Amino acid sequence: MSLLVRRCKFDSCWYSTLVNRLKLHELHAWSLTNLFWTSSSFCNTYAKLNILDDKTKKFLDYLTNEYRNKSWQSNNFIDFVDLNASGSLFNERVQLVENIQNLYDLGQQDVEIKKLAEEETILYKEQLNELDERLLHMILTNMYKDFYSNIIIEITAGVGGQEAMLFVKDLYNMYIGYAKYLDLDHEVIDIETTDNKGIRHISIMISGDQIDKFQHEGGVHRVQRVPATEKLGRVHTSTASVAILPVPSEIQIMINKNDLKIETKRSSGAGGQHVNTTDSAVRITHLPSGLSVTCQVHRSQGKNKKIAMDKLRSILYEQQLNKQTSFTSKLRQKQMGMGFRNEKIRTYNYNQNRVTDHRLGQNGTFNNLIEFMQGGVALEELEDRLYNHMRIETLLEVIKKLESQSK
Length: 407
Hints:
- The chain has helices at about 5-10, 10-25, 30-40, 50-70, 85-110, 110-145, 160-180, 300-325, 325-335, 370, 375-405; strands spanning about 150-155, 185-195, 200-205, 220-225, 235-245, 260-265, 280-285, 290-295, 345-350, 355, 365.
- The chain contains 11 helices and 11 strands.
- The protein has 2 domains: about 5-145, no CATH class; about 150-395, 2-Layer Sandwich (Alpha-Beta Plaits).
- The protein is elongated.
- Helix 2 (about 10-25) crosses helix 5 (about 85-110) and helix 5 (about 85-110) packs antiparallel against helix 6.
- It starts with a helix and ends with a helix.
- The chain is an alpha+beta fold.
- Residues about 5-50, about 270-275 and about 335-340 have low confidence and may be disordered.
- The strands form 2 sheets. It has an 8-stranded mixed sheet, with helices on both faces. It has a 3-stranded antiparallel sheet with strand order 6-7-8, with helices on one face.
- Keywords: Methylation, Protein biosynthesis.
- Belongs to the prokaryotic/mitochondrial release factor family.
């Protein structure tokens, strides 16, 4: 309870007025529209908030009301917010908001006490701002709650012919360098090479504690440079598509063994005498969906089978996500890098030694392409920017959806 309210509680007139005021602000179900457009009465003249901050406050007001009324239990739209884990923060926020409102009411009733109420209100608003930062961080972190110990990176040549396949090899080297920089394990699952030492398609398994730093790499990557075979010095534009597939656990994706057709054969391609003598290659077909995956990179049939199963599970998991139409499911797809496959997300301009990530606007340009392609500090800096940017974008999408529902 506010210090000023406690000072006034022995004044029967003020106390009765305060009690009546509190009854008006009990935990009743406000409409979403009122939540979004009247919450400024709690935080009025002292906080000069910009548009984003103002909307964020209204979003937190909405969540606070859902928590107070326990109506969040039946609100599927905010199922990405773990209100149980953040309950203590919401309880604290409820108390702070009530203190601010009570002081505002006291100031409206008495001119002499208004000055004291305003001074104390400033202190409570500072506490509220600090609390909201902690609460917002917890909510945004929870939006990224789908963590995996393994992911599969698939890189496929797009337009540009042989130059596109050489670009796939460059991206592969960049991601391997990044994995080593982050101290992550990596393993080639599948690879299709070309005669000019390019790569038509490659799948890589990445494992470790920081694989989330790859989650925003999914999409179309564009390269602009003069190919080695270009005699007139003209700049060519080629593309490669990158897909980030989280590897779910067996619990998340259950596969009936009776639905699988497992075949073994001799590996094809480079590999020496072993290729022609051992049936180590494994192809697994998921009969209900018709999906078929192959792995032949290891001499061990058992290891190839395990990798093929992981890849099959990842593809089925992605298909399951794509079938889900809920708003939060779509947000999760974007967070994992699945929502940008048909979008040009990044351009690598070799002539100008520049990398531009188009999702970040002016904040997405790096003038150190050679260093960037090594997959170290420069790529990590971009990933950190993307992580912060995507969290805010996700929040804005949630707020926009809430606003549209309130109309």
